[in-house]
Amino acid sequence: MEMDPDLVVPNPDLSVNEGAVKPLGAVGEGTSWGTDIVRAVARERGIDLNKPWKALPAAHRKVILFGTGDERVRIQLKGSWGQGAFKMRYEGAINSMMRRMRETHSEEMRQYYQKFLSSRPCSACGGRRIRAEALGVKIAGKNIAEVTALSVADAYPFFDGLDLKGAEAKIATELLKEIRARLRFLLDVGLSYLTLARPAPSLSGGEGQRIRLASQIGSELTGVIYVLDEPSIGLHQRDNKKLLAALQHLRDIGNTVVVVEHDREAMEEADWIIDFGPGAGRHGGEVVAAGTPAEVMRSKGSLTGRYL
Fold first, then answer.
1. What would you measure as the largest C-alpha separation in the chain, in angstroms?
2. 55 Cβ partners below 8 Å, 6+ apart?
3. Are 5 and 120 in contact (CB under 8 A)?
4. Are 217 and 251 found together in one domain?
C-alpha cells in the first residue's frame, strides 16, 4: 500500500492555492506554518501555485508531493512575528503524510491518512518488491526480477542452459538440479504458461496442487502420504498422462498417494480404488466397493465399476 497521488490530488483542474493537494488544503488561504513553508518552497523553486495542477511541469508537481530529497532549500518567511531565513529539507505532502501515519497514536488520524492509500506498484522498485542492491546481481545477464518474470516454458531452457564455472558451479549444482526438476515437472503437467512471479492466490485449485507437487518431485522425499483433490481438473488429456506418470513416480520411490478423482484414466491407473456411494451427499457415505480397478469393475453395486 502506498500513498496514491491520484487520491492526494483528486481534482487536477484546481491550483495548489485553490486546494488541489487535498491534505494541504487551500494553500492560498492558509495561515499555518505548513502552508507558509509550501509558499516559501514555491518561491524558491519558481512554482506557480495559481496554475492548475495538471498544467504544472512534472518536476514542480514532484517537489510539492515528494519534496526536495536531501537538498536543502532556502526558506524566507515573514509574518506578524517578524521575518527570517533558513535552509531546510522539504519532505513533500506525500512523504509528510506517510511519516505522520507511522508516528501518530491517534486512530482517527491514522484512518484519515489511510484514505489516501491504494494498492499500486512501489514507486522505488516498480512493483518488483526487491531492493536495488539485489537487482544489481545478475546471472547470464538477468537479475532475479527478470528471471521470475519468465514463464515456465522460458525459464526451463534458461536454467538448463546455465554454464557456470568454478565456485559458482560448485555452489549452484544441487540448487540447479532441483530447480530444473521442478520446472520439468511443471512443463509435464501443463503449466508452461504460468510465470514464476504469478501470485499464489490467483491460481486455480488444480494449478496450486500441481505446483506443490513440483516441490515434492524435486525434493525426492520418501515415506510421505500425499492427499490430492482432483489434480487433473483443467488438464489437457496429453498432460493428464504426464501428471499420472509423476504420481506413479512418487509412489515408486516409496510414498503413498491418495487421490480424490473422477477421471477415468486416473482410476484405471490406480493400484487400489475405494468407491463411496451409492449416491452423492447425504445419499452416500458408504463404501460401495474397494479393490483393484479390475475388482471394482466386477462389483455389481458400484456405479463407478460400471462406468469403468
1. 102
2. none
3. no
4. yes
Best CA proximity match to 208, nearest among 222, 224, 189: 189
pTM above 0.70, yes or no: no
Per-residue pLDDT, 73: 82
pLDDT tens digit string along 117-142?
887 777 677 777 788 888 889 988 99
CA distance 141 to 105: 47
87 and 104, same structural domain? yes
pLDDT tens digit string along 143-155?
A: 999 999 999 999 9
- Please report whether residue 302 resides in a domain: no
Q: Are 13 and 126 in contact (CB under 8 A)?
A: no
Q: What is the pLDDT of residue 218?
A: 65
Do 101 and 193 lie in one domain? The reply is no
Grid cell at residue 153: 516454458
Local confidence band at 83 (pLDDT 50, 70, 90 cut-offs)? confident
Question: Within this chain, do residues 8 and 99 fall inside the same structural domain, yes or no?
Answer: yes
CA dist 16 and 24 (Å) reads 8
**Are 89 and 200 within one domain?**
no
